[in-house]
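Exercise 7. Predict the joint structure of the components listed below.
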Amino acid sequence: DTAVSQTPKYLVTQMGNDKSIKCEQNLGHDTMYWYKQDSKKFLKIMFSYNNKELIINETVPNRFSPKSPDKAHLNLHINSLELGDSAVYFCASSQASRGTATNEKLFFGSGTQLSVL
Amino acid sequence: RKEVEQDPGPFNVPEGATVAFNCTYSNSASQSFFWYRQDCRKEPKLLMSVYSSGNEDGRFTAQLNRASQYISLLIRDSKLSDSATYLCVVNGGWYGTASKLTFGTGTRLQVTL
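Solution:
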């Protein structure tokens, strides 16, 4: 009964391919995120969704397209993969709401290590 | 200036030692601050939140200095199990109900026998 689960854990693929990473949370949270952690361990937000609606979209190439079929799921599809996309991608969720700072805690999935060859 | 800056370390300390990490942030409007812990090849997990001047939880003490825009984490009586990377995290703003948390690159701690 993992709180935030993402699949696959490892993804090895060739340049130019299209791939997807799936994420599900069973915490009942309204807000979900995708973060990217590069080879220098820098963790950077990519997207955030609240109840299926996109609310944060950082400067990410449009080859990356998040999709949220419902508030418990946030998937990440990547087209035309490039070498520089190699990283660990973390899904996260929170029950954040302004004025309730204790709910800002992020719950992360275990990460998907993407290697583009 | 980076939004959140930390000394990457590594800090190598013997068991039982006291160690302190500092972190500086650039956005003076930030209201909430956190320390996350990340073990090798694992996901980050919340260690402590810092909302006022400081917070203490057992061997861990976090302090906030808004005037100088820095946060510190003090670990007393270090254990081998404290070995990890400690990420300083700052709320860079709210977007509806999503908080845009900005992570530092982390400070690596290695506790030795």
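Discussion. Chain A has no helices and eleven strands.
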